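Following the same procedure, sequence and fold were stored together, as reproduced here:

>
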Amino acid sequence: MREDILLGGPVAFLAEELRLAPPERLLAYQAWWETEGFPLSVAIDRLGTPHLRQFSPHGERVDEVGYPPSYAYLLHAGYSAGIISEVAQRHDLRLSYMLGFITSYYDPGLYCPYTVTLSTWVPLYKYYWGERREEFLSLLGRSEAPFGQGATWMTEIGGGSDLGTHVHTQARRAEGELWHLSGDKYFASNVGADLAVVAARPEGAPPGVKGVALFVVPRLRLRGGLNYYVRRLKDKIGTRSVPTGEVELRHAEAYLIGEARQGIYYVLEVLNFSRVSNAVGVVAHGLHALAQAYRFAQGRRLFGKFLVEQPLFRHELAYHYERLRWAGALAWLSEQWLETVWLEKPPYSERYALFRLLTHLAKFWTAKVALAAAHWCVEVWGGLGILAEFPVERFVRELMVTDIWEGTRHRHLLDGWEVLRRFGLLGQITSLWDLAAVDGSLVPELEAALARPEEEALPYLEPLLTRLAQAIGQLTAAQSNYTVLT
């Protein structure tokens, strides 16, 4: 383990692991976070849940989120650096995700507005060809202030994993391309966004996932006034730098994205962009936790030695760092595959199916590895680690939230297994990665589990897919080989 890389911040890690000379833009963005951004982020986190002002002094509904003025300054830094505009103008996903990696190293919650804005821009760019196309795309793709923001609202009170059962928001056609949406979204992040992509069920649509369509909902109605309402803000344990609330849609003006019958595919595309962001971001935040543990150990003297000199500390630090390297390799591998498939439309290629599997593996496993690193950091700090006055308990709070974001572990295990089984991807995987080189029994055990009836295979899912994720990450990190199926 190279301690200079660990202590060099997110750009040093990216340069080492991705074998690149970091652009000046990344170095400047990290320097800004070190000098200005991170102190603001800490202050906003300690303020807790912001207040919601629902009415103006004249009784008009305004639904304003009461962050301090410094929040806008913090938020605008990423937009100014090009985290969305570089995708909108040059399709540079890699730069966007690297800026997200830096952001999440310091504040995973702040990466959420950027993530959902990108995940709003993409389906509009690919599938929406209505009269307001250029207006919507230019709003989100700005390179200078004022910046437009997006949001992705799928989840209702019944839960977010089973959209076919729990999407009850109704869509009724109005006039022209206009629709009216009525329903409630229970876990809506980045409330106050200028545009939100929303899952809803058109009148007369079939039950289940085939009846789910995707719409874009502007914040303001065509004739002025709010188009959706924020019932309340959620009091979350972490990610406090993104406002999450409950949204009421009451005949909200909306525009259908693409074809209604293809809506569930668009929803899954949106989620996969966010899942890659989550995987990239949690690795960055886990690295920050390890750096904080190391710096603390440099000044902590125990039994005649500084903690940083103790053999067990060094062994465990190396263990967590190596696992984060592998997790980071898997995250960036999924990002690389996303770059090659993101413009595909249904019906998708086999390459897209393998991207889906990599994304499921990356989302659940990176979150698990990063959270373990954060727990270890708290343990290194001892009793100080659980005190709010010190910086490390926040790592656990943030990474407990991102562990659940965009699908729990169980959802990704089940969906990943379904993709692996349905498309017969094991042969493609073994042709790209020599799994036997790092886990000799993995392939035979996967073959045996795939041959079992589905219910009998369930107990094997987590251990096998965890080993598969680790093996692909380990091989990718060792070779710096971000192989893409052509």
In short: The chain has 18 helices and eleven strands. The two ends are 34 Å apart (CA to CA). The mean pLDDT is 96. The chain has three domains: 3-140, 150-260, 264-479.
